[in-house]
Amino acid sequence: MTRRRATRRRVGAFPVVVLLLGLLLVYLGGGNVDRSVRALRADGEPGLFTAAAQDCVSHFGHVSCTCYGDYRSDDGSVEREWVYLSGGDFACEEGAVSAAVDIGANTRVYHPDGSHEWIATAALILGGLAMATWSALPWVRAVVRSRG
């Protein structure tokens, strides 16, 4: 009769770090799901955004502009200064007024058409899950083999 020796492989630091980073990404993305869904649906306090300034950045042959201004809710209960308008198609000229929705984000209000911010949130969560799964897979396989 031959005895099988139980051997334990040491777990390297790299899979542990990848697992922790993956879990951190899932945690960070999960904390943003509610706001991303509200931004997608433009679910918040409707009001008007008045443009004050535009800041543009050119990178890789593409120009990206951010429109800053003031927001006032339709009922006058919420006034926010120097926020930016996210989402939608808006020609940002000083004094131009556009419909906007305040969903409670600190630095921005959203166009009534909503925002595609949920894509980045979903990618963050899925990337974190993929990292955590990849790093935990050898441990799961070892447990399955030891029981089988």
Identify the strand order in the major beta sheet: 4-1-2-3-5
List low-confidence stretches. none
Radius of gyration: 24 Å
* Gross geometry: elongated
How would you sum up the major sheet? 5 strands, mixed
Distance, first to last CA: 20 Å
How many DSSP E strands? Answer: 5
Structural class: alpha+beta
Relative helix content: 25-40%
Key descriptive features of the protein:
single chain, 148 residues, alpha+beta, 5-stranded mixed β-sheet
Structural features, described:
With 148 residues, the chain is α+β, with helices and mostly antiparallel strands. 39% of the residues lie in helices and 30% in strands. The chain contains three helices and five strands. It has helices spanning 13-30, 33-41, 117-147; strands at 45-59, 62-73, 79-86, 97-102, 108-110. Strands 4-1-2-3-5 form a five-stranded mixed β-sheet, with no helix packed on it. Strand 2 and strand 3 form a beta hairpin. The two termini are 20 Å apart.
List the SSEs and their pairings.
Blueprint: H1 13-30, H2 33-41, E1 45-59, E2 62-73, E3 79-86, E4 97-102, E5 108-110, H3 117-147
Parallel strand pairs: 3-5
Antiparallel strand pairs: 1-2, 1-4, 2-3
Helix pairs in contact: 1-3, 2-3
In short:
The chain has helices at 13-30, 33-41, 117-147, and strands at residues 45-59, 62-73, 79-86, 97-102, 108-110. The chain has 148 residues and is an alpha+beta fold. The radius of gyration is 24 Å and the shape is elongated.
